[in-house]
Amino acid sequence: MHIPDNYLSPQTCAVMAVAAVPVVAVSIYKVRKEIPPEKISKLGVAAAFSFLGMMFNVPLPGGTTGHAVGGTLIALILGPHAACIAVSTALILQALLFGDGGILSLGANIFNMAIVLPFVGYYGTQLLKKVFKGKNGDLIAGGIGSYLGINLAALCAAIEFGIQPLLFHDAAGNALYCPYPLNVSIPAMMLGHLTVFGLAEVIFTVALYAFIRKSAPEMMRQFTREKVSKPLGILLGILIAAVPLGLIAEGTAWGEWGADEIVSTGAGFVPAGMANGIEWSALMPDYSVAGIPDWLSYIFSAIVGVALCIIVFKLISAINTKRRPVEA
Questions:
Q1: Which CATH number fits domain 10-323: 3.40.190.10, 3.50.50.60, 1.10.1760.20, 1.10.150.120?
Q2: From CA 226, how far away is CA 58, in angstroms rounded?
Q3: DSSP labels, 272-302
Q4: Would you list the domain boundaries of the chain?
Q5: Mind giving me the DSSP string for 245-267?
Q6: For 206-226, what is each residue's pLDDT tens digit?
Q7: How far is 46 from 44, CA to CA, in rounded Å?
Q8: pLDDT at residue 218 in the model
Q9: For the CA atoms of the chain, what is the radius of gyration?
Q10: Which of 98, 156, 193, 233 has the most other CB atoms within 10 Å of its CB?
C-alpha cells in the first residue's frame, strides 16, 4: 500500500498532503494534551510495532504481496491520535531511509495508513463493542475494526491510483502517471486486502493486542507505568528476528512496481511522468545493505528502524518533560 513517487501527479500529492497535515497537527495537539510528557516514549514502541508489521510481506497468488500496518492496534492501546503520529513516524522513516514509499507521495501514504486506517479501525471497534459483549468481545470487535480500517485505506489508495489516467494524460490520451484506471486499480487492490492482507491485519492486531493487554499493560493509555516491561522487549526481539520471513513473499506489491515492471504488467509503456519523475536515493533501499545477505540486511534494517522509532520519541519525551512548568 506504500505508494511510490511518480505514480501520483504532483497536484494529487499536494492535495493529499493538504488533507493529511491538519489531521496530524490536531493529533499532535491531542497527544500533548492527553498523554503526559514522560509517557510520550510509549509512541516510539508503538511506531516500532507498525514499522515491523509492514516488513512482514504476505504473498498472494499472481506474484503480488502485501502486509499488516498495525494502525488499529496502536489506536486501541494508545488512542487514534497517538496511532496517527506513530504510524506517520514509521512511514517517514521508511520513505527516507529505506525507499519504501515515496517522498512526494508521503502525504497520500500518511492519509491512507496513518489517518484513515487507525481512525476507521478505532471508531469501528467502539461501535462493534456494543454488539460483541462477551469475554473476548473487545478482541472480536478489534479484529473486525482492523479489517475495516485496512480495507478502507486500500480503497483510498486504489482511488488515488485510478483517477490518475482520468485526470492526467497527454494529447494522445496516454496516462502521465499511474496508467491503471479505476476499473483496474480498485479490483486489483481490494482483492488482496479483502482476503489475505486483511486477514494478516486482523491476526497482527488481535494477537498483539491480547498479548499487550495481558503481559505488557504499561503500554495501555490508562496505565501510568513508564518503563517498558521485559515481555514487551522480548516480543520486539522476536519480531525483529522473524522479519526475514517477509522475504519469502516473492514479487512486488501491486502499484509499487518500477518503470521496467510497468511495461511488463500490462501498461505496455512507461508514462512520461514516471520516466521523468523524481528519484530518491535511500540509504538502505528496499531494506538492503551492500555486502551482506538479504536476510541479515532485513534484520539490520529492522533494528535500525525500531531503534530510530524509540529514540525519536524518547527525545521528544525528554524535551517536553524539561519544558513542563514546575508545579508550586
A1: 1.10.1760.20
A2: 34
A3: HHHHTS-----SSGGG--TTS-HHHHHHHHH
A4: 10-323
A5: GGGSS-S--TT---HHHHIIIII
A6: 999 999 989 888 888 766 555
A7: 5
A8: 81
A9: 20
A10: 193
